[in-house]
Amino acid sequence: MAGDAGFTMIETPRLVLRRFDAADLDAFVAYRADADVARFQSWEAGYGRAEGEEFIEWVTSVHPDTPGE
Fold first, then answer.
1. Does some domain include residue 28?
2. What pLDDT was estimated at residue 69?
3. Phi-psi region of 46 (alpha: psi -120 to 50; beta: other; left: phi over 0)
4. Which uninterrupted H or E stretch holds 28?
5. CA 55, CA 59: separation in Å to the nearest integer?
6. Maximum Cα–Cα distance for the chain, whole Å?
7. Residue 10 — φ and ψ, nearest 5°?
């Protein structure tokens, strides 16, 4: 992963923050495709696997604190 050698994970008893990885694809696509979620977000329901793969490929290539991202 580009430029993130120092970031692995932040974990508390109630929360885990970590980078996306390929194992998150199915859950991420299901979340983005859910019409009940989409109606409160800036995207349309019907998000597909190809879009999820592209997103995970992109997000794993940038440092987690890239401004505006």
1. yes
2. 59
3. left
4. helix 25-33
5. 6
6. 37
7. -120, 125
Residue 7 lies in a domain: no
pTM of the model: 0.71
Per-residue pLDDT of the chain (69 residues; tens, 9 = 90+): 455 556 778 999 999 988 888 999 999 999 988 989 888 888 877 788 999 999 999 988 887 777 775
Nearest to 52 by CA among 21, 7, 9: 21
Residues 6+ apart with CB under 8 A from 23: none
In a domain, 4, yes or no: no
Instruction: Tell me, yes or no, whether 34 lies in a domain.
Output: yes
Residues contacting 62, CB < 8 A, separation 6+: 2, 3, 69
Between the alpha carbon of residue 53 and those of residues 15, 32, 35, 67, the distances in Å are 25, 12, 20, 22
